[in-house]
């Protein structure tokens, strides 16, 4: 049996943008809850522009996708915006199949996501 590594989330600021670098499987249970709590925390601190970098995630499920949708809606209600960074691969395919890339602007690079705010 393989041991599940805990998800790692690093939060950093770039000007008035909060950037969350996420590493590990974004799946039901603790990982999705962990991401939700981290996003909730930056929103409560007043962040209006948030970028979530998903390039360190090998797998995402409906629970992880739901977490991103809930925060996107919450931010929009408060006048904020969420952007995702996700290069090609399994996670990008999952975001495309669920049409999340149409609901939440998704970019291949962090610089493209940041440029989208200006």
Report on this structure.
This protein has a single domain (14-115), classed as STAS domain (Transcription Regulator spoIIAA, 2-Layer Sandwich). Helix 1 packs parallel to helix 2 (62-77). Strands 1-2-3-4-5 form a 5-stranded mixed sheet. The radius of gyration is 13 Å and the shape is globular. The mean pLDDT is 93. Helix content is 42%, strand content 25%. With 118 residues, it is α/β, with parallel strands linked by helices.
Outline of the structure:
The chain has 118 residues and is an alpha/beta fold. The chain contains five helices and five strands, in the order E-E-H-E-H-E-H-H-E-H.
Low-confidence stretches: none
Major β-sheet strand ordering: 1-2-3-4-5
By CATH, the topology is Transcription Regulator spoIIAA
Helicity, in percent? 40-55%
Q: Major β-sheet, in short? A: 5 strands, mixed
Shape: globular
Query: What's the alpha carbon Rg, rounded to whole Å?
Result: 13 Å
> What assembly state would you assign to the polypeptide chains in this entry?
single chain
CATH superfamily: STAS domain
CATH class: Alpha Beta
How many structural domains are formed by the residues? 1
Please trace the helix and strand order, writing H or E for each element.
Answer: EEHEHEHHEH
What structural category arises from helix and sheet content? alpha/beta
The overall strand count is 5
Q: Calculate the mean pLDDT score and round it.
A: 93
Distance separating the two termini: 47 Å
Beta-strand percent range? 15-25%
Number of helices: 5
Provide the CATH architecture. Answer: 2-Layer Sandwich
